[in-house]
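Hi, here's the filled form for the chain we discussed.

Project: internal
Contact: R.S.
Residues: 347
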Amino acid sequence: MGPSLIAALIVVAIAGFALVRTVRIVPQATAGIVERLGRYHRTLLPGLNLVVPFIDRIKGTIDLREQVVSFPPQPVITSDNLVVSIDTVIYFQVVDPRAATYEIANFLIGVEQLTVTTLRNVVGGMDLERTLTSREEINTELRGVLDDATGKWGIRVNRVELKAIDPPASIQDSMEKQMRADRDKRAAVLAAEGQKQAAILTAEGQKQAVVLKARGDAEAAVLKAQAEAEAKAMRAKGEADAIAMVFRAIHEGKPDQELLAYQYLRTLPEIARGDANKVWIVPSEMGRALEGLGGLFTNITGAAGGAESSGGPAANGAGPAAGMSGASGERGAAGHEISGKDTPATG
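And the returned structure, exactly as it came back:
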């Protein structure tokens, strides 16, 4: 192998190495910082880039995507001298690769330390109760302070979240006891209010029941009185109609004195049935009525004797009129005993 061939190979190798150092490919969402002779020259964008070999040097690539960093718990003292442990999560993004490279040595450590100091300043002005209930306020204040402080570093803080706020164990026990007592108190108050409402509703129900019962009794009494009045009116009307009917029937039948006397005799036992009936008042027309009734019985006896002499059934004493002659006591159609001793015989 001659010297010329060796020299050609050396030249080709140098050219290939120079070509490799000249062509640079930058991945998507990253940026490269190019230094020329030790000074910042330019920022390489994603894609194919050409640099001057042996003069330009790529210091490094920076991730331009949004990054999420969770910092370890930090002890923070509140305004009421209680130590709480707070975990934070930072969402940030590099918007200026040059500033993030040359303005701060390590922007991640800077963001962490700035977050810790800002968190202590913010929480130090709050008491424990406000710290536990004001997460959104703390997040907003932290984000504002961090975004202003990291702007010159080429970093934009998008979001700050408090992942956990842990008070001491003794404070947690006290808080649990306080919450339990508060819940027991609210439960007792609710139970008392429920009993009060139940008693009120029960009393109102009983009152309404009494009122409705009294109203129902009044309406029932009114209806009963109306029913009794209507019944009495109907009964009186019925009795009046019955009397009118009997009166009309009597007048239409034209009864004689004998029938009236007979009906009066039938009613005498009903009049004498009561224990207090000691005195009877007999009308003055009673004598004439009895005389007429005796004449009626005499006619009936005479008719029975004529039938016996003619050889009819009454001759053998079997007729119904045979038991009505003589001075013995007779019985009327209603079974009442009629005496004929003082009745004068007429023919």
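Let me know if anything looks off before we file it.
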